[in-house]
Sequence to fold (146 residues):
Amino acid sequence: MKITIGSDHGAVELKDEVKKVLAEFDDVEVKDVGTFDTTSVDYPDIAEKVCADVVSGESERGIVLCGTGIGISIAANKIHGIRCALCNDVYSARMSREHNDANVLAMGGRVIGFGPAGEIVRVWITTDFVGERHERRVNKIMALEK
Ligand code: RB5
Fold:
């Protein structure tokens, strides 16, 4: 699985930690679109870069990070084809995959510790969409884009 990851200046350290977690998985390839230091950048620009890869199919999934995770998740969900879930706990991360088929995960670098964030990432990348009745609902979400 290829994953594109990006953060604004509010989550550069969390991005490095998430990349360490992703490196635990032999079948995960990571593309990092920045930012790479704490110079202020605008999170919608990062969301756009990560989500472009997901929409084009270059990456199967995306991970977007900012200070709270809120701004970058709102931005990501404006992009057609993206189902971005802001998760601060493992249960939400699991459900975002099983029920919502989330293709982008958002977290906040000023909200969540590295330990919980790592567990969220592990669960999020290893949990499959269950389909069935949830497929109908996800299809209705995507129809709202039209
Ligand atoms: C940047 O200071 C901050 O606003 C951003 O990282 C994020 O928290 C916005 O939602």
